[in-house]
Amino acid sequence: MTTPRPFGRALCAMITPFTATGELDLDAAGHLAAHLVAEGCDGLVLNGTTGESPTTTDAEKTALVRAVRQTVGDRATVVAGVGSASTRHTVELARAAEQAGADGLLVVTPYYSRPPQSALEAHFRTVADATALPVMLYDIPGRTGTRIEPDTVLRLAGHPGIVAVKDCAYDLLGSAKVIARTSLAYYAGCEELNLPLYAVGGAGFVSTVANVAPRALRAVLDAYDKGATAEAARLNGLTLPLAELMMASGLPGTVTAKALLDAGPVREPLQPAGREATRGLRAAYEELIAQSGPPGVPPAGPGN
């Protein structure tokens, strides 16, 4: 069976650059998007949690999608995060993203209210019916408080507009069962599952770490596709120290990515990484590049 890849294989959950005074920096967003595509990303996911969607306005979200679309053209897919705690608001964001030129929608489970599975299913169907864009479900119960149960995903797979899942549920068995029974494209949303999920039929990844090491992450998939599974495992192992520091060190991925990129501040309530954390991130990044090969343009963070 051929694995469906409606949005590509190597997708970056892109950070949202701000100016020094905290305003949306569309020029910097365009430069970063172009760099990521040149370094091997065939898809960009905008306005997700990594993109600080909780603290950007609806107008900023739309402007970012439009600017990145204009920059990358047809060289990469543009997927817009439109999820919220409100079905009505999510539909509004979805329609705005469609008008701004997005290729697809990332729709996270409504958070905090913890709707039951029947309500979740109705929510996703309503959003999928609202535009002509394909939908990627975002299953991240650790943040939303609610899992999209595999049986619910199986039912939603019958909707023609629901084509993919960003998987942060940490249930490889459940994901493998859905992959085996549907044509949904499963994208790893947690870097430690990039290779394991790919090996059981996943489509690729949506990665925060790809903001700073897109080529190293894509190389893992390239090696696996060539049948060089041992090499894929070796290359994957090289990425883990940086991924662990960026995603499991107690700091949000947005903060750690911006510590390695010249992309402006984070918005409150987030706070920038301290000097010690930034030094550790820089060391891990430089070690990865030394082992896997230089990127086109290395990140330039504060304190360098």
Automatic annotation (TrEMBL):
Signal peptide: none
Protein's job: Catalyzes the condensation of (S)-aspartate-beta-semialdehyde [(S)-ASA] and pyruvate to 4-hydroxy-tetrahydrodipicolinate (HTPA).
Xref: PANTHER family: 4-HYDROXY-2-OXOGLUTARATE ALDOLASE, MITOCHONDRIAL, DIHYDRODIPICOLINATE SYNTHASE
Entry binding sites for pyruvate: T50, V206
Residues annotated as site: Part of a proton relay during catalysis: T49, Y112
Family membership: Belongs to the DapA family.
Keyword Cytoplasm: yes
Keywords, alphabetical: Amino-acid biosynthesis, Cytoplasm, Diaminopimelate biosynthesis, Lyase, Lysine biosynthesis, Schiff base
Gene: dapA
SMART domains the UniProt entry points to: DHDPS
Molecular function as annotated in GO: 4-hydroxy-tetrahydrodipicolinate synthase activity
Transmembrane segments: none
Active site annotation, chain numbering: Y138 (proton donor/acceptor), K166 (schiff-base intermediate with substrate)
Subunit structure and binding partners: Homotetramer; dimer of dimers.
Stored Gene3D superfamilies: Aldolase class I (3.20.20.70)
Organism: Streptomyces maoxianensis
NCBIfam families: dapA
EC number(s) from the headed UniProt entry: 4.3.3.7
Pathway: Amino-acid biosynthesis; L-lysine biosynthesis via DAP pathway; (S)-tetrahydrodipicolinate from L-aspartate: step 3/4
Name of one Pfam family that matches: DHDPS
Subcellular location: Cytoplasm
Catalyses which reaction(s): L-aspartate 4-semialdehyde + pyruvate = (2S,4S)-4-hydroxy-2,3,4,5-tetrahydrodipicolinate + H2O + H(+)
HAMAP family noted in UniProt: DapA
Descriptive protein name: 4-hydroxy-tetrahydrodipicolinate synthase
